Amino acid sequence: MPGLPWEMRPLKVSLDVHPGELTQAMFEIVNTTDRPLTGQAIPSYGPSHAAQYFRKLDCFCFAKQTLQPGEVRRMPVVFVVDPKAPDDLFTITLSYTFFDV
What is the pTM of this model? Predict the structure, then answer.
């Protein structure tokens, strides 16, 4: 079964983003188990065509993450939305799934 028994939430549910502007989103991850776990985050975008306009410059998803039992960690995603994104792309939903590695 994909995914780890970690809880993850954005610190802000919604951000106002202007294309071409550097933006940072913060996520909080909690290892809810009694053992250390290592995972790799894989992003998903909604709508799916938004991925081609979403440029991550720094992301916790670029590397494996090891969390100790009960550890809480805040992790950033620094990104830019391409100014060439279509005018009708008003909302991009970014989500992550952590997979055991």
Answer: 0.89
